[in-house]
Design goal:
By secondary structure, the chain is an alpha+beta fold. The protein has a domain at about 10-90: 2-Layer Sandwich (Translation Initiation Factor IF3). Helices cover about 50% and strands about 10% of the residues. A four-stranded mixed beta sheet has the order 1-2-4-3, with helices on both faces.
């Protein structure tokens, strides 16, 4: 099986991701046996990134074990720190399933189909509710809208505006506190003027 190669950025990211992990496989005095290789293979399938602890071997022997594991199981050596080996093998089936799931939600349309915005494609009923159906042809004038506008203008002409009626009612009604209202000026200036006018000279 071909050995998996990593670039420096991938190796750095995997080393950081493996920092909180604990060793899941222990290689004892008997060395790298078939049973140990099978256990490492199952752990890589389950976790993708694992730590392997090697006991009772020197540094060159540990390097040789790491190379043998990578060649036999088609995985990548992330790091060799003391008696701990960090090994990585991606789950190809899980990656393919993730790519397929991402592509499944993507809208596929032919070149001849009209463009549909994402929100309308996600909620097909939203676009239909926003645009009311009309049976009017392209050249005909909109009679209902014209009648509604005309009715609104007639009602507005027959009824005085609320702003004018409010101001006229206020000018006609006597003030409760006896201070005449003016069109400009604040209440404080009006009261001060009223006090000055009442004070005896």
């Amino acid at each position: 099986m071909p050995k998996l190669e990593l670039n420096p950025q991938q190796r750095r990211d995997l080393r950081a991701a493996a920092h909180p992990l604990h060793p899941v496989v222990l290689i004892g005095d008997k060395g790298l046996t078939d049973a140990v290789l099978g256990e490492i293979d199952r752990s890589l399938t389950a976790h993708e990134l694992i730590k392997v602890r090697v006991s009772g071997a020197e540094r060159p022997d540990r390097d040789a074990m790491l190379e043998a594991i990578c060649d036999a199981l088609s995985c990548a050596a992330v790091h060799h720190l003391g008696k701990t080996l960090i090994i990585y093998r991606p789950d190809v089936l899980a990656q393919q399933a993730a790519v397929a799931a991402e592509n499944a939600t993507r809208a596929v349309r032919k070149k001849s189909d009209p463009y549909v915005p994402k929100k309308q494609a996600a909620h097909p009923g939203a676009g239909k509710a926003a645009a009311p159906k009309t049976s009017r042809k392209a050249g005909e004038p909109d009679v209902k809208a014209a009648d509604a506008r005309r009715r609104g203008q007639v009602e507005d002409a027959g009824r005085p505006s609320a702003r004018r009626s409010r101001s006229s009612d206020a000018s006609r009604a006597p003030a409760a506190h006896g201070i005449p209202r003016r069109s400009s000026g604040s209440a404080l200036t009006l009261r001060a003027g009223a006090r000055r006018s009442r004070s005896p000279r």
